[in-house]
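Sequence design from tokenized structure. All designs in this work follow the same two-part layout: the structure record, then the generated sequence. An example of the structure record is given first.
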């Protein structure tokens, strides 16, 4: 009987321990729920703050980009002006040569031709110094990116070889700015 009393007391203790453990677990769960509710409230505030912050950041980035575009436009215009000034400065000796030729009028065709030849070479040199190169065409295979065939002629040369340049073509810094107008072999 004592054993039953002892078992009963142990059972009661275990029930109390289990009940108190359950109460502790319930309290812990309630605390977790309260914490989650607080986190949700914080998240709502935090999400609104994040949205406002991101909106402001986007507006700042957009304004910075607009300012950057304006600075680049000004810089591009200034670069064009400087480049034009440099080329015009290089062309001034050509202008001087024309003025000199016109000032010393003569009826001697050889002197006139020599003067024009000097002016032409001077002008050609200025253009070459600024990246202009002539497209080499005669004797080359026809290339539609560099040549424009205006005429075809029977020839003993290979088919589609350039026989004659009718108008010179040019590249500026390696890019075709005008194709060479040519006559090709049939």
């Amino acid at each position: 009987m004592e054993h039953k009393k002892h078992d009963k007391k142990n059972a009661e203790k275990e029930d109390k321990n289990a009940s108190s453990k359950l109460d502790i677990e319930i309290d812990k769960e309630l605390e977790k729920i309260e914490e989650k509710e607080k986190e949700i409230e914080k998240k709502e505030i935090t999400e609104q703050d994040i949205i406002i912050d991101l909106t402001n950041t986007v507006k700042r980035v957009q304004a910075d980009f607009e300012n950057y575009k304006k600075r680049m436009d000004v810089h591009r215009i200034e670069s064009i002006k400087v480049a034009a000034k440099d080329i015009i400065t290089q062309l001034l000796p050509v202008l001087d040569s024309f003025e000199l030729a016109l000032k010393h009028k003569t009826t001697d065709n050889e002197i006139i031709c020599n003067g024009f030849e000097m002016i032409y070479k001077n002008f050609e040199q200025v253009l070459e110094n600024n990246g202009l190169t002539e497209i080499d065409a005669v004797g080359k295979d026809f290339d539609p990116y560099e040549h424009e065939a205006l005429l075809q002629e029977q020839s003993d040369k290979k088919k589609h070889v350039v026989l004659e340049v009718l108008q010179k073509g040019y590249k500026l810094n390696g890019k075709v700015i005008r194709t060479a107008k040519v006559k090709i072999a049939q």
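The chain is about 65% helix and 15% strand. We note this feature because it recurs in several other targets discussed in the main text.
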